[in-house]
Amino acid sequence: MARGKSQTQRSRSYESDDHERGACEWCEYALVITLATILLIGVSALTVFWVFYYREGYAWADDLPDKQFNLHPTLMVAGFITFSGFSVLLYRICRCFRRIYVKLLHAIFHALAFPCIVIGFLAVLDYHNKKGINNFYSLHSWIGFVAMGLFGIQYAVGFFSFLLLLICNKGTAGFRASLVPIHAAFGILTFVLGVCACLTGLTEKALFSIGVERYSGMVDEGIIINAIGVACIAILAVVMYILSRNKFRTPESRGQHIRASVDL
Amino acid sequence: MARGKSQTQRSRSYESDDHERGACEWCEYALVITLATILLIGVSALTVFWVFYYREGYAWADDLPDKQFNLHPTLMVAGFITFSGFSVLLYRICRCFRRIYVKLLHAIFHALAFPCIVIGFLAVLDYHNKKGINNFYSLHSWIGFVAMGLFGIQYAVGFFSFLLLLICNKGTAGFRASLVPIHAAFGILTFVLGVCACLTGLTEKALFSIGVERYSGMVDEGIIINAIGVACIAILAVVMYILSRNKFRTPESRGQHIRASVDL
Q: Is A51 an interface residue toward B (CB < 8 Å)?
């Protein structure tokens, strides 16, 4: 009884809190969401620019393996960083949407990331086979392999649990609720692994394609590759900041978060 | 009045909650803390093993630049991963200590990391100068530079704010409390940057020292270097998991955390 009272009071406190949201808080929210959007689109745009300006664009042909390889960094950055990043942030961006629409958008953005990652992976696998290079020897490939595996498992679990199980909405509510923090934690881990894979991949690519002599001479292409890496890290920092700010949650999930803390 | 009542009730709920802490929760806590400890010590031990077994140990002499370079990965892993990792986790490991002792231990572990990072940096700077290699051209060096800068600023701010300002305990309480989340957020960012720097550095080292031919042939040294990288990522995942678990906080800071959430 006392507990029910305290909960009512708490939810009332959120409402008034929501109405009194200060200009400063909105400015901060708008600023970091805008920054994240610019970085997430910018990193893919910069990668495409790099490939067209310095690496002669794209192809998928037996006699043009290097152009085929170019699909790998572009699609992996798009899949693991841009689409996955937006997908993660949707729960903070679409705060006034109904939850089911946000979930669907989350699934759609991951559905866009999925072919990027699969084609990006096949592009480098086929490139290695054409050139007679071994697969899965480097730290980059190990990280990428785990990231892809986690992405696949997360997608399957998410699709099954949070969309398909809605057929039996009430019966599965407890199971779905208990799965949310696990799905979120592994989702963030996948994103972090994606960023780590990009950073090690960019380091490899700079040394393989530019060569240590020219790279250490600070040629323009080296700076562009470094800038892509810096953008990946900036995205990781901004995304983690947005996710850690309780103020940026929807009032509903903020309430759940606090209740979860109180109910420990 | 009602609010005071609800807070009393909440703090009572923590107490009973704390007493009833289940065996399962303690097992989880003990397991992840043990895992983190093994990984944090293991990654440094593995780096030392790698250097002695494959890279001929350490030196600081003009005629042995390669042995001097070996100080760089060893000290950076020790400083940015092992000591910093333990320092971050102290607030979850020493839950029954008085807060001031935890703070002092946190400062001491960072004080151990400090010379590691400085000497590790000077080792590679001197190595580059001896060999006539440019400095700060690679993505690894850019990430490392930012990580070192943040580490220095964090150390100075932390030492000044959380230890020196205790001279005027009451007068600075508000300022110190408001600084805690900023210091914690930038601390985690520094740790993530440290891990990213290690991963890109290991990739560079594998390609420079083993060479792409032997590295792609899966030689033992390549696997050891990859294992150091995997350990770094595992540490990042375990540390982030421990920090995200509200249950692992001290009851005191857990209360502060929840009050901060409720008071938004």
A: no
